[in-house]
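Researcher: We plan to redesign the surface later, but first we want a full-length starting point. C-alpha cells attached.
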C-alpha cells in the first residue's frame, strides 16, 4: 500500500519528529514517499531528523509558510505531478499549507483515501477574527474532501467537531503523537549546551521565537519573579525565529541582564541559547520547564520535559491540559504573568515534592506517547479506510 505523506517544512519541531518516526515505523505493508516544503532562513534545519531515521524526502521549494497565490499554484501543480508519478493509495497531509494544497491536488486526481492530521490549529491567537472565519470556512470545505481527520488529543477533537464544526464525529479520529521519549529519562553523555550553576534555579522555555509562543509573557514572568524571591533565578530561552532580536531588546527594556551562550552568562537574568540539538542536555540542566503559548496542539516540549522528570509551568491553552499531570504541572490563564509567578513560587517552595511527582510521571508519559502506539493507530486507520474505499 503506497502512502504519499506531505509535511510543511523540515524544521526542528514536533510535527517533523512525529512524521519521521511514523514514516520509519510503518510495517512492510506500507511504502511511503515523504514530501515537504523548504524551511525559512530564520528557522532551525530539521532535515537531520530524516537522515537519522533513514528517510529520503522530496523538497517542494515553493511550499512555504506564508501565503503567496502565485507560488501556491505552482506548489499545487508540483504536488499533482508527484501524485501522478507516485500513484499513491493514500495521501496523508500534516499541518495547514500541505493540508490545503495536498488535499486539493489529491481530490483533483480522484484519489479516494485522503487523510489530514491537525498538529494544532490556527483558529485562536494567530489572525484577526475575520481571517480566522475565512480559514475555518476553508477547513470545513477541505474536511468534506477528506476520508479522515486526525486529532492528536481528545480535547482537539472536541474543538474540531463541536466548537469549530470543521469535521464530523464519524470522520474524526484521535491518534496521539508518537515520539521516542525514553531517551529523555536519563541525562545523555553529549556535551551540555550550557554550564549549570547549582545555586541558580533555571526556568527554561524551548520553542520557535514567534508570536504565538508569546515569549514576551515569559520575559514578563522572569522579571516579576525576580522581585518576588530572594533565590537566584535565571531564564533560558532555547530556539530561533524572527523575533530573536526583538525579544532581546524587550528583555533589556525590563532591566534584565541579557546574555547569549557565547558570552559570559554567569550573572545573566536571561540567556538566549539559540537552537540546540541536544534538548536532552538542555532539559537535564534545567529545573523547571515553562511554556507561555497563546495556542498549542500537543506541545512536544512538555512531553520531553515530562519524560525527563521536570516540573512544568504553562498556560492552559489548546491540548496542554490533556497531556500534563496536575501533580507536576501548574497551569495558568493565557497572558497572566502574575499567575505564572504564583505557580513558580509554589514549585520553588516545594521543589522536592514536584520533582518526585515529575519523576514518577515520566514513564507514564513515555508509554502514552510511544511511537509503537502511533504506528499501530495509524496502520489500523489506513487499513480501515482502504477497506471502505
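Model: Full-length starting sequence:
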Amino acid at each position: 500500500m503506497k502512502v504519499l505523506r506531505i509535511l510543511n517544512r523540515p524544521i526542528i519541531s514536533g510535527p517533523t519528529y512525529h512524521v519521521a518516526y511514523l514514516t520509519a515505523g510503518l510495517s512492510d505493508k506500507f511504502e511511503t514517499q515523504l514530501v515537504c516544503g523548504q524551511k525559512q532562513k530564520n528557522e532551525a534545519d530539521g532535515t537531520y531528523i530524516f537522515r537519522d531515521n533513514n528517510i529520503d524526502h522530496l523538497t517542494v521549494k515553493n511550499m512555504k509558510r506564508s501565503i503567496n497565490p502565485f507560488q501556491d499554484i505552482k506548489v499545487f501543480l508540483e504536488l499533482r505531478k508527484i501524485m501522478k508519478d507516485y500513484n499513491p493509495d493514500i495521501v496523508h497531509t500534516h499541518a495547514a499549507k500541505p493540508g490545503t494544497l495536498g488535499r486539493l491536488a489529491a481530490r483533483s486526481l480522484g484519489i479516494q483515501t485522503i487523510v489530514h492530521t491537525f498538529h494544532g490549529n490556527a483558529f485562536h491567537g494567530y489572525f484577526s477574527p475575520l481571517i480566522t472565519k475565512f480559514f475555518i470556512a476553508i477547513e470545513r470545505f477541505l474536511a468534506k474532501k477528506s476520508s479522515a481527520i486526525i486529532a492528536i488529543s481528545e480535547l482537539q477533537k472536541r474543538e474540531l467537531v463541536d466548537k469549530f464544526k470543521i469535521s464530523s464525529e464519524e470522520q474524526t479520529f484521535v491518534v496521539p503523537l508518537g515520539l521516542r521519549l525514553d531517551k529523555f529519562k536519563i541525562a545523555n553523555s553529549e556535551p551540555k549546551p550550557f554550564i549549570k550553576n547549582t545555586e541558580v534555579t533555571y526556568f527554561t522555555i524551548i520553542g520557535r521565537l514567534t508570536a504565538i509562543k508569546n515569549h514576551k509573557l515569559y520575559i514578563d514572568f522572569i522579571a516579576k519573579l525576580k522581585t518576588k524571591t530572594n533565590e537566584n533565578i535565571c531564564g533560558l530561552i532555547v530556539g530561533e525565529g524572527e523575533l530573536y532580536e526583538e525579544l532581546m531588546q524587550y528583555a533589556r527594556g525590563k532591566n534584565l541582564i541579557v546574555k547569549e551562550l557565547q558570552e559570559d552568562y554567569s550573572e545573566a537574568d536571561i540567556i538566549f541559547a539559540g537552537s540546540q540539538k541536544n534538548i536532552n542536555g538542555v532539559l537535564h540542566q534545567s529545573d523547571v520547564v515553562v511554556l507561555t503559548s497563546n495556542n498549542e496542539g500537543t506541545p512536544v516540549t512538555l512531553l520531553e520535559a515530562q519524560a525527563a522528570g521536570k516540573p512544568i509551568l504553562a498556560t492552559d491553552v489548546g491540548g496542554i491540559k490533556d497531556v500534563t499531570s496536575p501533580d507536576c504541572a501548574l497551569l495558568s490563564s493565557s497572558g497572566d504573568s502574575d499567575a505564572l509567578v504564583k505557580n513558580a513560587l509554589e514549585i520553588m517552595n516545594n521543589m522536592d515534592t514536584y520533582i518526585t511527582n515529575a519523576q514518577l510521571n515520566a514513564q507514564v508519559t513515555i508509554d502514552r506517547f510511544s511511537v509503537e502506539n502511533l504506528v499501530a493507530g495509524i496502520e489500523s486507520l489506513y487499513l480501515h479506510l482502504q477497506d471502505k474505499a
